[in-house]
Write a structure and sequence with these properties.
- The protein is globular.
- A four-stranded parallel beta sheet has the order 5-4-6-7, sandwiched between helices. Strands 1-2-3 form a three-stranded antiparallel beta sheet, with no helix packed on it.
- β1 and β2 form a beta hairpin.
- It is α/β, with parallel strands linked by helices.
- The structure holds adenosine-3'-5'-diphosphate (A3P).
- This is Sulfotransferase.
Length: 321
């Protein structure tokens, strides 16, 4: 079995040559590592080897384009509601990914020289981090600790469309073109996209949320859209930072919902310009934020194809997306 205990460059090269691999959109190499298409193998291994979780850590886990940015802004506001008046919320000056960095692609972006300063100094207590890693690839120290994980998932067709439009705006190294949607959809169905397959990623966290409900909370983008206030209350309770009835009466929850709405966040200068990630501008993290936009992009054949894949994989697990 492949373990995460790799250290040398030689071992890394050996591992790479032993794994199935693909060039993603003609540019970035992806490796099928631990049952997931991984586009940042070195960073993943580095954080698997070195990251030390603390029991108080909180992780926002997701497959890309399922509402990560939104959930980060909500969690940030839950924890910081007493530190700043809403008009001084740091979300008005910073992109949510700056305030809650991704473990593997920001903290460990440079695998040889991870940004431990941010981890140790800049992050407030508790440390809140994002991750797109599937559950089986999380560093062992996370699995062995009592830290909490909030997983957000979304209807796969909306996830697909959101990622398709996002990747169209990716850096110039990729050859993503308007007319490649069907080709990319084929890859999506096969799970061959960063952090895919979709079904395995979602199911991994779903099962864990059933087995360890105090540790893993499973959320849906659609529920957040439908009733953000109730979801926010559940989130507050899960992370042991519940809203009091006075706060609720004073409209604190409503304020946070409004502060974190896509309309509001889109107006923030840091979200209009600038980059947290070198390969994409911050503005592409905020598009429509709607449920069901996929009907404008997918034909019935495409839908049928993925529905078949999903119904087979999800059979018997009681999860509907
Ligand atoms: P769409 O492309 O369907 O609009 P992620 O943050 O995981 O990359 O997900 C991005 C998706 O979440 C995009 O979906 C984006 O528009 C949506 N989104 C971002 N911020 C949001 C917010 N505050 N409220 C609702 N949706 C939001």
């Amino acid at each position: 079995t492949i373990t995460a205990a790799l250290t040398t460059e030689e071992e890394l090269q050996q591992l790479k040559s032993s794994l199935p691999n693909e060039l993603w959109f003609n540019s970035y190499p992806m490796y099928f590592y631990q049952n997931c298409w991984n586009i940042i193998l070195e960073s993943t291994i580095s954080c698997q080897n070195h990251f030390k979780a603390q029991d108080s850590d909180i992780f926002i886990a997701s497959i890309p384009k399922t509402g990560t940015t939104w959930l980060k802004s909500l969690i940030f506001s839950i924890f910081n509601r007493k530190n700043y008046p809403i008009s001084e919320n740091p979300l008005l000056k910073h992109n949510p990914h700056e305030l809650i960095p991704q473990l593997e692609s920001i903290i460990y972006a440079n695998p040889q020289n991870p940004d431990l300063k941010t981890l140790e100094k800049k992050l407030n207590y508790p440390r809140i981090l994002g991750t797109h890693l599937p559950i089986q690839s999380l560093p062992t120290s996370i699995k062995n600790s009592n830290c909490k994980i909030i997983y957000i998932c979304r209807n796969p067709f909306d996830t697909f469309v959101s990622s398709w439009l996002f990747y169209l705006n990716y850096d110039e190294n990729t050859n993503v073109k308007d007319d490649m949607i069907e080709e990319y959809f084929g890859k999506f169905c096969e799970g061959k996209f960063p952090f895919g397959g979709f079904e395995d990623h979602v199911l991994g966290y779903w099962k864990e949320s059933l087995e360890r409900s105090g540790k893993v909370m499973f959320m849906k983008f659609e529920d957040l859209k439908d009733d953000p206030k109730s979801e926010l209350k559940k989130l507050g309770e899960f992370v042991a930072c519940p809203f009091s009835s006075e706060e609720e009466e004073d409209g604190v929850i409503d304020e946070i919902v409004k502060m974190c709405s896509i309309e509001k966040l889109k107006e923030v200068e840091a979200n209009k310009s600038g980059r947290v990630y070198s390969f994409i501008e911050n503005k592409w993290f905020f598009r429509k934020g709607e449920v069901g936009d996929w009907v404008n992009y997918l034909n019935p054949c495409m839908v049928e194809r993925f529905e078949k894949v999903m119904s087979e994989k999800f059979a018997g697990y009681g999860l509907e997306l």
